[in-house]
Design brief:
single chain; Rossmann fold; 4-stranded mixed beta sheet; about 25% helix; globular
């Protein structure tokens, strides 16, 4: 693993994970959460549930998306990351929060257990 990724205060994966084939997500998790281990990691990804609000959308939002997660799927993935790598997570909406389907984009703010300086 490339140790040059270590030593940063924060990492941002903005609209990145949905472009990675699911079998490769574990490798990404290991590099970001296992090796780099920044104090904070922000991850945003489309909320698949919100897609019903786009009248002309059939399928995923972008042809290069390998997947799009619902809010429960995103939360499940994040919980596993926390358990494996020693982080806590807080979820925030990005965009208007529709009472039925949530916001268009979902965000997870991960904090390394023991604090950002641990």
């Amino acid at each position: 693993t490339d140790r040059r990724f270590a030593g940063y205060d924060a990492a941002v994966l903005m609209e990145v994970i949905e472009h990675i084939d699911p079998p490769r997500l574990t490798a990404l998790e290991q590099v970001v959460f296992g090796t780099a281990r920044p104090g904070y990691v922000l991850v945003t990804t489309p909320n698949a549930e919100y897609n019903v609000r786009y009248a002309d959308l059939h399928g995923m939002r972008h042809r290069d998306h390998r997947f799009e997660w619902s809010r429960p799927e995103f939360r499940s993935w994040a919980a596993t990351v926390c358990d494996v790598h020693g982080y806590s997570v807080d979820f925030r909406p990005v965009g208007d929060d529709d009472p039925e389907v949530g916001s268009p984009t979902q965000m997870a703010v991960f904090t390394r257990v023991g604090g950002a300086d641990a």
